[in-house]
Amino acid sequence: xxxxxxxxHEQQPDATGSKIGMWLFLFTExxxxxxxxxxxxVYRAKNAGDFHYASLNLDLVTGAIxxxxxxxxxxxxxxxxxxxxxxxxKRSLYFxxxxxxxxxxxxxxxxFEWSHxxxxxxxxxxxxxxxxxxxxxxxxxxxxxxxGLHGLHVIAGLIVLGFMxxxxxxxxxxxxPVSALTPDARVGATTVLVEYAEHDTLDQRxxxxxxxxxxxxxxxxxxxxFLFPLYYLIS
Amino acid sequence: xxxLEHQGRYKGIAGWxxxxxxxxxxxxxxxxxxxxxxxxxLIGVVMRLKMLWPGEHLYSxxxxxxxxxxxxxxxxxxxxxxxIPAVFGNFLLPLQIGAKDVAFPRLNLLSWWxxxxxxxxxxxxLFSGNGPPDTGWSFYVPYSxxxxxxxxxxxxxxxxLGFSSILTGLxxxxxxxxxxxxxxxxxxxxxxxWSLYATAWIQILATPILGITLLLIMAERIxxxxxxxxxxxxxxxxxQHLFWIYSHPAVYIxxxxxxxxxxxxxxxxxxxxxxxxxxxxxxxxAIAFVGxxxxxxxxxxxxMSDFARALFSLLTFLVAIPSAVKTFNWIATMYKGxxxxxxxxxxxxxxxxxxxxxxxTGLLNGALxxxxxxxxxxxxxxxxxxxxxxxTGVGLFAALLYWFPKMTGRMYNKxxxxxxxxxxxxxxxxxxxxxxxxxxxxxxxxxYSYLPQYHIYHVVATVGSWLLAGGIFLFLGTxxxxxxxxxxxxxxxxxxxxxEWKTPSPPPHENFDEIPTVTHGPYHYExxxxx
Amino acid sequence: MNAIxxxxxxxxxxxxxxxxxxxxxxxxxxVTTASLHLGGWSVFAAIAIATVKxxxxxxxxxxxxxxxxxxxxxxxxxxxxxxxxxxLTFCDVLFR
Lengths: 235, 531, 96
Fold this sequence. Notes:
- Chain A is mostly helical.
- Chain A has 8 helices and no strands.
- Chain A has one domain: Four Helix Bundle (Hemerythrin (Met), subunit A) (Up-down Bundle).
- The radius of gyration of chain A is 24 Å and the shape is elongated.
- Chain A starts with a helix and ends with a helix.
- By secondary structure, chain B is mostly helical.
- Chain B has a single domain, classed as Cytochrome c oxidase-like, subunit I domain (Cytochrome C Oxidase, Chain A).
- Chain B is built from 16 helices and 4 strands.
- In chain B, the strands form 2 sheets. Chain B has a two-stranded antiparallel sheet. A two-stranded antiparallel sheet of chain B has the order 3-4.
- By secondary structure, chain C is mostly helical.
- Chain C folds into 2 domains: 53 residues; 29 residues.
- At the A-C interface, helix 2, helix 4 and helix 8 of A face helix 1, helix 2 and helix 3 of C.
């Protein structure tokens, strides 16, 4: 009888379905950046020397540090999910904050990199650039375009993670097992049991959402994994 | 209580525009899409009007350029691409697989909101600033970067519309994988569902390339990056590659669902199981895949390498094969069937006829040697109207004729439909066949004027456009009339066998009183009756 | 409808840390390889290492290793599409 109350109320969330949805979205991001990687590949093939020369102007150390930052943020992300799986909301939140902080540091680094370039007159359509070879022009155009779009995705990811932090921080509804109620209160027993079941369901929903948010964050990391050598390490 | 009467959280109009019910969303799309289709038809009529005489008259050449651009943008991005999936996919998919809704109902509503936002942005691009773009719907560089018409805004509108398409595809793939009712294995799904599945994959994997292409136009116009500027090492041809890498698969987004509709209609009106179910299902997947390999056949005269041109020409011939498989199987289904020519069947057969002409004339475009002569002529315009309009457009009309009774619980006046068909069919062929003839004789496309030798063809074509438009508006008007005065339709007026016909017309809010269990294929007839 | 997919035991957190260490080492490797003057081969080395890194993130951090086969097939389709697009475009660009 108590089981009947549980099954008729909340439907179990479809974790696999949500995950499929998220992966499909990730494919669209893959193809979006893929188009830009295509442009990059063609222009680099045609202007190999200029690309190498222009690449020397990018700060390898900052790029490497940013790579390490994002890789670490992927670790903290996956640890946050692991903690939530183990019902440790506090540690999950701690690792989530760590991920967000790392993401912010990445953006700050980016800001300094870009400012430095712009300060030296290197930005799309600048006069300084018109004096340089066409290969270098293409390099910088693609550099700003791709790191810019990647940066926008980092910002979007941080906003999503912010919402996730709020979600993880919010405790699930308290539940009371039926046996703890007085005989009179047991008249409403069905409702209480449903809440209890919902408590379980709610944790699953949070876990699914956090995992999907994590998938997005990892993709942002993977894109940078390819951007780093292609822009900073052209030899 | 059916879905039209159901009272949810919101009342009145809000109950519709904030509804997450896939059926209401389908109807919202129907109204929006048919409205824009009508606008696109009117623009076409206005274009043809000017072409009655050569020389600059009626309106300026600049206006003509804007007209053909906007006609293309509206019909392609606001009508044909969303068309069948957004209207009929949304309405029918859960019903056909025995589900209560799609996998992500709120994302579904968001899809429609993105459509509306994109449409409003496109309208703004028409009437604000320096006026509508005059680049053609393909926005080729360098002109699209230099013209001071509202290219950035129009392109941004298309970018937003892309999200609508992507979200629909995402929803459908997940729904088909996860929400089929008990007993419905992959090979018991209706073929319309299969076609939506194949289409959804193209929506997911191709649309983002359009996204980046449009972003690049905006970035170039705003930031002057120089990525397509030859003076700065850029290659304008790369723009064309990126544009067509989406836009060719896009034509398969257009045609696959229409073919899916035909695969539904033919078994119903021949009272037989479809011939070669698996072949048709797999051919949808094959078309989706091979469709990615052929895009540069739009660029044969643009300056590509000879190697690429020969390669793409060869690949283009391959993509015709799965389409031919479908056509053969439809005809084979009709053979020795108990054929009843109701309006949906009439339009289904019209689809086969017109699409076959479109497909066959495509061979001249696909063959490199002949394409050199017909590229950028009216021959191409005729070809793609036969495939896109005679194909997808007619397929959408067939879908409307087939599923209108299910969606509204009313039947339309069949005589009026047949009358509209006559006007449509005669007008269509007068207009577009003539285009192919004059294109073959050298009449270039996107030209607002022409040499005297083409005059007679333009007159014939324009008269055809009047008949065609008349037929279309009579067709659409018949449905509006049916909404007010149509006879009541029952659950299965056509005697069809798929799951959507086992629920009342119009369906209840939750689709089925009980989720059905399926024990056989979708087109199962015994003694001429659906099992 | 299943709730959480197959893994009954959560993956030990230490394995994530191991993967992370591997990623850091590969980053160091790719930086050193860049200074080796491999000429035309350097881009392949860079992409190869990046692919290994990306694969580690995909398989372990993104759990692809433990997911149903459908996820792997779908990812394969997406990557195949991207590859085909790039190869065919280069069929034009390289032969002009």
